[in-house]
Amino acid sequence: MDRNALLNLLFEKDSFLLQLDTGLRAKAPRPTPQSSQVGSASQSQISIPAQSVQLQPSQRESRDQNGGSSAAQATEAVSRDIEGNTTPIPVVPIQDDKTFCPLMAVSRFPYRHIKGELSQTVARKFFDGGKFWERTWDIYYIQPPSRVSPRALLLVPADQVRAFFKEINTALRCNLTIPAEKQGMQLTFDNPNLPSPKFLGQCTSRQMKDRLESQIPPGSTRLSAPSGMDEEYLAYERMLDRACSATKNKKTSKAKQQSRLQNQIRTVECLTRLQSYFGLRSHTDETPAVDGDMTWAGQTYKQIVAENHDVTESARTQILLDVNKPVPYLFWKMPIFVCVDVEANERRHSEVTEVGISILDTKDLVGVAPGEQASHWRKHMRSRHLRVSEHRHIVNRIYLAGCPERFDFGESEFVYERDLGAAVLAAIQPAAVHETGSSVGTDESRHLVLVGHNVAMDMQYLREMGVHIDQKPAGTAGFIDVVDTADFFRMLRREETHRSLAKVLHELEMTGWNLHNAGNDARYTLESEKYLDPTNSAIRHRNKYAIIGGGPCGLTFARFLELAGLDYVVFERDPSPEHTPRFQGGTLDLTAEGGQAALHRAGLTTEFEKLARRNATILTIQDAHGNHRTTVGGADNNRPEIDRRQLRRLLLDSLPSHRIRWGKALQRAELEPSHKGAATAQDWVLRFADGTSESGFRLIVGADGAWSKLRPLLTPATPQYSGKTFIEGRLSPGNPAYAAALDMVGAGNSLAIGAGRCLCVQQMSDQSYRVYMGVAAAESLTRAGGAADVADMAKARRTVEGMFADWAPHLRAFVAAAEEPWRPWPLYRLDADVFLPGAQWTRTRGVVLLGDAAHVTTPNGEGVNHAMLDAMVLAERICAEIEGADGYEYDREKDAAALERAIVAYEADMWPRARETLVDSLAMEEMMYVEDGALQMIRMFESFKDFKEAA
Asked: Does residue 24 carry a pLDDT above 60?
């Protein structure tokens, strides 16, 4: 039986394979004697399975020398596709530049990489309705490592994609290009020592692509990193990972991002609880009192405050970070940390051989300084090692090296298997923790926190012994928390798998002796709770992000950096959170797509809902004479109110207190005189009003409001006076006009509009009312010596009351009753044209603006929402570029370039929003100061599809 007959016999059940030309018979300039010996086989349509094709050097040399695409160069054989159409099938196409694109990512190009109307045009003419698949594509495949993707990755030559884009560009007069390799759209296989794509076949329909894909052999040839080239292989793996990500369904990617975010939120929550347990921060759910009676170098904390009444949060932070002094806060819940490690027979997992228990009682830490590497605290740990008498001869050797006889923190104790559970329970009871004669004794209120490394398995073994963490061991209030150090470190590192205890210890620069002894493992696991050591920064980047401004915008961005595990510091001009001016901000309404979305992504929705006033969304509109009175909004209006001070406090409580530097008013930013070449953030020096300076930052983020000191680095544009000024007063519950305000406004807002004037009354969370008296007037009105200069309140009151003299009596009464002191608030805005493409905006490397610092506008209800959205978008762009904090290999220049890409992407999102908001605010501003403004506003609300008048 000759070769052709044999192949026909092998593949007679698969007509598709019989019709497939694998390219083994490349067309040569002349027939050779060897080819003639095959006889009629040279004219047959017999093919060899695609996976057996290997491009040989002789084939590389025999290709057509005339250039052109691989499909045009290849010798064509005629076959029939699965629909019966005649389709040209190439021999083995040859790639000169060894560059490919992910096929499925290319097929979705207009939907992922083109914005605006052009996306729809390109999709309609070249992609929709199967048009993309009607082209002739040379398909290759490669098997990524299993941890990257379980499926083969389909590729097409980049030359074919470029030719396709050139055709689109010519037809539509656009300029499409293949995105950079960072987005996974372009792969170069130029390393001969690493796997390269294999040719699969040629397709002219989606069905043919699916059929070809089904013929790919299982991924049995997946390779691991070759020896001696780890870095090259890791780069190769990252390239494939990006390409696989580019082909994935966007919804799936979003779901994974959400899951990743939830993991990060859990990490921060765990960190927050641990810091509270160890007195490193106050806990807001309970009285966050500082331990005033705790001695501190011979003084109590109260004495320190008494001697320096202007003590700030910054000073408290400095005290906190001094590890040679006790922590400043009470130990929240005063827990007992119980760390358990269970070792079992590796041949018979149901046989427990050892149990290690280490305990740290926070009562023992009161007044004790942590010391370097928490050395003083570690002295108070008590460790026990229980060995099962029946299994004392068992030593694990197959999968790991056990050492049950080498307990380094005391003497091992032998117990019978039947008594093991009781022995464990006895060990974790407070009465057994302390030495005989201790004054602490048992306490029914003591809380326990279980600690373990991969603790789920240990908990299972404990249950089998009769120890249940959902039950209360005698003398305790039960377990209130579980800390898994393995999961904790995995989430902090954003890794797919858990690190072993040995690797975690190495990461923390700790030495672990005789590991896989249960007693030793329990001790080291308890010590490895990183937050026993306030000075350890192993999981942080060396270079910080500097955030200028501690308002809602800057703190929202800080929250996202905290979730991402990135190092940062916030510089805030207020001397402390308690010194926030009473007049700084009224009540804010957070939209679903703005402030609420940012809080949700930041994991703060629950805290927000505790403060949100959803009953305060009603707005009463009327003109200066009380006519056209209409009430809009209500329970269906998803714009709940929250005081600005409450929102700020909520965000502050979500951050470690040492992240905020209070009393730091930025004066200017200037370049280091010694810097050379293109400046990065590390070349900028921040000069503060207190005479100090800071430098060496990874990124400088301006969230410092309307008069940002960083804005001049990016644009010469400055806020211009709008011609309007608000003057703010207050109505407390004891005010004679309070009852009228309660009747007219209730829990919501009221807006009265007249020619050149407006009056806004809004209720705050403390039931008081803010009164905003708006007037169209010269900028000098409230300046020193002006007619409404609040330094002379009698003159200011006469002036303002005179401006409202022709208004309805019930409205004039609020002006007359507005309590002092008044606050003048001249309204400024940027010109919307600042955000036209290329207009008055330049890039300064390492500097970016958020919120009012970027796009200050007059009040229109959207300012804080866009500011918090700015923070969320920038954080997302940064995390996308640096690939997840600690998994990112830091290099100054590469990092600066990555952050620049993130900023450019953020600004591309922010500029259109900023311009739209400025335009809308100008329209709102004009409506609020005209005679028929109330009627215009009512008609505007009535034009909304979901409008309905409030009851």
From this structure: no
Distance from C-alpha of 816 to C-alpha of 811, rounded to nearest angstrom: 9
pTM assigned to the model: 0.52
720-829: which CATH topology?
D-Amino Acid Oxidase; Chain A, domain 2 (3.30.9)
Amino acid of residue 603: G
Range with the poorest average pLDDT among 370-379, 563-572, 691-700, 860-869: 370-379
CATH classification of 545-718+832-933 is 3.50.50.60, yes or no? yes
Could you give the residue range(s) of every CATH 3.30.9.30 domain in the chain?
A: 720-829
Q: CATH 3.50.50.60: which residues of the chain?
A: 545-718+832-933
DSSP structure string for 322-357: -TTS--SB--TT--EEEEEEEEE-SSSTT-EEEEEE
Render pLDDT for 884-936 as a digit per residue (tens, 0 to 9).
444 444 566 777 888 898 999 999 889 999 999 899 889 888 899 999 989 99
Peptide bond just before 912 cis, omega within 30 deg:
no
Please give the backbone phi and psi of residue 86, each rounded to the nearest 5 degrees, phi first.
-75, 125
* Residue 83 identity: E
Of 429, 435, 482, the closest CA to residue 458 belongs to 482
- Scored b (16 or more CB within 10 A) or e, 692-714 reads eebbebbbbbbbbbbebbbbebb
Query: Which helix H or strand E contains 109, and what residues bound it?
Result: helix 109-113
Fold of domain 332-532: Nucleotidyltransferase; domain 5 (3.30.420)
Q: How many residues are there in the chain?
A: 951
Domain(s) labelled CATH 3.30.420.10 in the chain stretch across 332-532
Question: Does residue 612 have a pLDDT over 50?
Answer: yes
What is the distance between the alpha carbons of residues 260 and 319, in angstroms, rounded to a whole number?
34
C-alpha of 43 from chain center: 61
Cα–Cα dist 817/807, whole Å: 15
d(C-alpha 757, C-alpha 586), whole Å = 20
Instruction: Of 542, 704, 630, give the one whose Cα is nearest residue 938.
Output: 630
